[in-house]
Design goal:
The protein is α+β, with helices and mostly antiparallel strands. 36% of the residues lie in helices and 25% in strands. It has 16 helices and 18 strands. β16 and β17 form a beta hairpin. The protein is elongated, with a radius of gyration of 29 Å. It catalyses: tRNA(Lys) + L-lysine + ATP = L-lysyl-tRNA(Lys) + AMP + diphosphate. It is found in: Cytoplasm. It holds the Pfam family tRNA-synt_2.
Amino acid sequence: MTDAPAPTPASAELEDDVFEQKAVRLAKRERLIEKRADAGGGAFPVSVPVTHSIPSLRAEYGELEPDTATGVTAGVAGRVVFSRNTGKLCFATLQAGDGSRIQAMVSLANVGEESLADWKALVDLGDHVFVRGEVISSRRGELSIMADAWQIASKAILPLPNAYSELSEEGRVRSRFLDLIVRDQARTTVRARAAVNASLRATFTSHDFLEVETPMLQVQHGGASARPFITHSNAFDTELYLRIAPELYLKRAVVGGIERVYEINRNFRNEGADSTHSPEFAMLEAYQAYSDYNGIADLTQELIQNAAVAVAGSTTVTWADGTEYDLGGEWDRISMYGSLSAAAGREFTPQDDVADLIAFAEANGVDIPPHPTHGKLIEELWEHFVKVDLVRPTFVMDFPVDTSPLVREHRSIAGVVEKWDLYVRGFELATGYSELVDPVIQRERFVEQAKLAAGGDLEAMRVDEEFLRALEHGMPPSGGMGMGIDRLLMAITGLGIRETILFPLVK
């Protein structure tokens, strides 16, 4: 952790201003408590008599002609995001949680001298305020409540950020609650995420999948090549791991007869954080008995396209920067070895030896991965030569066997497995397998992984005896897939991963 930077003169001045405003607002809090406590009000009443929401009033009366009175009385509450006090008539804009707004008009004629004076003296930007009165449109056509009564619903002790100066990205991430108040895109992203999850569940339901929950605390990590977080259980006096993937438990469910199963939940990987990676992230995994990696690719395309429609109304989505991106149609399927050979100008095969691949990588300025194997080198080369040019959604098929210990060997190509990675916007969005269900071969693969772990590879898997015992009871041929929910939001919205997570982990 680095020391915080010394405050600049401008930031010090801002801190002083906030301190002064806080002191003033705390004094107003005391006045509210003294003035309204007997009436059950104060600065933080337990409730206010809301009869209508701001969105519902906008939906019903949003098209009123200017200077129109409805005769309808409504009680609404919202956060004050604009205020103008002018003599005998005060104006405030109240904002609901979804960003919709209504104007409150507080006049001497309707509320009386004392109440109007209290409004001017006690109400600040950021306060939650309740107003009751007739629904009207102002002379300028603004939907309004002409208040005959008002009440503080919650006193804001700290001021809001200036609505006309954007929060920095770091500020948005660290203070998401402020981001949600002042920025439309932040609220839109939260709603988009909810729509995506609802769409995913609806698509799975239409294909007769069951949603389950599997352990996040595990006695042995597995299901992916990743470095885990380690914790300690006092109750069991043992080390536990935050899961890196739910795969091995979901496959147990398939063995048990839940032949179409999925889970949407959190994974944790003790690795780097960047624009496409977060140590804690939301993951979807699904398994379908009597399918394979081709069938699960079809399902994945349907899941993503339905999610795009749920958010954008179309498979052509518009990103935050205004770029349109087409997720529609049938997506390309290319082979890893074939596409690498074409891009690099020489043939690559599963039989290439490690020394030759290292020499080629070094000659082309490609980084050599730690603990290099044939598969790791092929994947590094592929990312260098091919990944950068992928624009459309693309399934990259048929991976090296040594980087995919949970995947079935290809039915016709020696040395590769039936695995695909889906690339969208140039990053990996999902991965899918024809699942390895032979417990004898699976044990051999685990043993090879254990050797890598013993040699210092922190991402290698260990031998999972409980999972092997489940496989020995018979798992049907199956297809499986995993997809990051945060990355799916990135593909649909064009945002970075920290913007798609409501409260991301930051230093």
